[in-house]
Design goal:
It is built from twelve helices and eight strands. By secondary structure, the protein is an alpha/beta fold.
């Protein structure tokens, strides 16, 4: 019982781990579903019960996933590795970690060698005091390729990870097989963006946490209780990546490394996966990626926010696997 409860809590925290990005269009809260009653303390445990399929996947992963470290440019980089075959690298977003891909690793590992790094400055990787920008992540990803013996890989990136994956594909086209952009960032911030919104991407108060979670997830009920908000804020306090996040916010605010006018250089088979109700990087951005990357496919997941791999893992994994296998993902 204790082991299962621990897994369920891990699932909730994985869903609540921050996977952020900066939107080029207005960052606005998506329409809310019908109000749901907020559970009391006795009911709250029901909210952390993981789906049976996810729990089973975690149990399988215990033995199948290797927890590893390598060194890139003198920094310790933590990563997970599973499976064998063509290489697929999963890249998390701003404030994220390997936990953001928990429901995806086991299904992919049945056919692929799956590598999931904590990008420099996040998770269990080193957090040096750098002037972080997307070009930093591109250089570290290139170094990671070399250290783990990868010549070519398919890249799957969520949010800031999608920004990084696209930038890497442009900088190193010979090292990318297929490209998957999941609710990705990357376009220049335009218009008058409220500084409160940008600062909210690096939350340090309970109110900022509430506002952020309302933008990230379509299904807000699991994150509406005081216990969930407090737990998420505690995870932010202990993550140790606040400096990293702020440097990325500042860099994007300065317009560094943006993808505007560059996507025509991407010639790789590309799938764009988007949550229809994403309140951070809204659907219009996904449609713009689809328009500007010739031959790309778009797969829109309904009733889903910024992290479809966590909020709708079954649909996400099915679409991703079809695309990687060479079949067309179902468009919506």
């Amino acid at each position: 019982m204790r082991k299962r409860l621990t897994r369920n809590l891990i699932y909730l925290m994985a869903r609540a781990t921050m996977v952020l990005s900066i939107s080029t269009v207005s960052i606005a809260q998506t329409p809310k579903p019908s109000p749901q009653p907020i559970p009391d303390a006795h009911q709250s445990l029901a909210l952390v019960r993981a789906p049976a399929a996810f729990t089973a996947a975690l149990e399988t992963q215990d033995a199948a996933i290797a927890d590893k470290y390598t060194t890139v440019f003198g920094a310790k980089i933590h990563y997970l590795e599973a499976g064998s075959g063509p290489v697929v690298i999963l890249l998390h977003g701003l404030g994220g970690s390997t936990a953001n891909w928990a429901p995806t690793i086991a299904p992919l590992a049945q056919k692929y060698r799956v590598l999931v790094p904590d990008q420099i400055g996040f998770g269990k990787s080193d957090k040096p005091m750098l002037n972080y920008r997307v070009a930093t992540l591109v250089d570290f990803l290139d170094g990671f390729y070399k250290q783990v013996g990868v010549q070519k890989a398919s890249l799957v990136g969520n949010s800031l990870g999608g920004f990084t994956a696209a930038a890497f594909a442009i900088a190193h086209p010979e090292k990318v097989d297929k490209l998957v952009l999941v609710d990705a960032a990357g376009f220049a911030v335009t218009g008058d963006i409220d500084p409160k919104v940008l600062n909210g991407l690096n939350p340090s108060t309970r109110q900022q946490v509430k506002e952020l979670l309302s933008l990230v997830f379509y299904n807000k009920q699991p994150f509406s209780s005081d216990m969930a908000v407090d737990g998420f804020l505690a995870s932010r306090v202990t993550a140790g990546d606040q400096y990293t996040i702020q440097r990325f916010i500042d860099s994007i605010g300065r317009g560094e490394d943006m993808l505007d006018g560059k996507l025509g250089a991407i010639k790789h088979p590309t799938l764009i996966i988007w949550g229809r109700e994403d309140g951070l990087t809204q659907l219009a951005m996904g449609q713009r990626f689809n328009k500007e990357i010739a031959g790309s496919q778009i797969f829109i997941i309904d009733q889903c926010g910024h992290v479809p791999q966590l909020e709708k893992p079954a649909e996400f994994n099915a679409g991703l696997l079809k695309f990687l296998s060479g079949a067309a993902a179902a468009s919506k």
